[in-house]
Write a structure and sequence with these properties.
236 residues; alpha/beta; seven-stranded parallel sheet
Length: 236
């Protein structure tokens, strides 16, 4: 995606952290951003940031991605207005309480499965035909290579399952379409997700989310002619 002007970009998890930074950079580069998140205030902040940099008004969608009927309505509305999605960046994630495997609360586990796995598959179902309708659809998924420890098994298990299902989807797309799926490994950023796992960390040593967003866009542009499933590692 070397030119983002007039592109339609769907960002799920766009109200804070990396998703918000990515939405701002893509919007400022000329894309029509459709921003999805539960936090309406964060979405409004994103819209203000994009407009202040000369971008198009962001389409704000305050929606829980675990809301199946809501996702169906979102897909129908995008199809009716634009007919396609050129880029889908999925950055929404649920981080359950840190606990040993034997002490994970059922509610915490269910929420992680619902958000990190089930909702990802439901979104694939909705966005797949919109990506296929684009000249060269692109998907960006975040990959977390953190080694498992005593306390993060619920989070990593559901993120691993998400990678499995999106990887299988990408292989199918490679056989029939020009859609490209990128799994990106990101450097540590001062986000709420990072703080959940590293409380009290000196955030001055971390990479700002906006810098990571710019690098992701650059790396995606370098692979603009590729199809199928790919990985990029921005920790390098």
């Amino acid at each position: 995606m070397t030119d983002l002007n007039d592109k339609v970009a769907l960002i799920t998890g766009a109200s804070r952290g990396f998703g918000k930074a990515l939405g701002e950079e893509i919007g400022a580069a000329g894309a029509q951003v459709i921003a999805v998140a539960r936090n309406a205030g964060g979405l409004e902040e994103l819209d203000n940031a994009v407009r202040s940099r000369g971008g198009l008004p962001v389409v704000l969608v305050p929606l829980d991605i675990c809301d199946d009927p809501g996702l169906s309505r979102l897909g129908a509305a995008i199809h009716e207005r634009w007919g396609r999605v050129d880029l889908w960046a999925h950055t929404a994630v649920q981080t359950p309480m840190l606990a040993p495997a034997e002490h994970i609360e059922a509610e915490e586990l269910d929420q992680a499965v619902a958000t990190n796995l089930r909702a990802a598959q439901r979104l694939i179902r909705v966005v797949d035909p919109l990506l296929r309708a684009a000249p060269a659809g692109r998907v960006l998924m975040t990959h977390d290579p953190t080694p498992p420890n005593t306390f993060n098994s619920a989070y990593l298990a559901t993120k691993s399952a998400q990678r499995t299902i999106t990887g299988a989807w990408a292989r199918g797309l490679q056989q029939t379409t020009s859609v490209q799926v990128i799994h990106a490994t990101l450097p540590p950023m001062p986000t709420a997700l990072r703080a959940r796992f590293h409380p009290g960390e000196d955030t001055s040593t971390l990479t700002p989310a906006v810098s990571v967003a710019k690098r992701v866009i650059e790396r995606m542009a370098e692979r603009s002619d590729a199809v199928g499933a790919h990985t990029i590692d921005l920790r390098e």
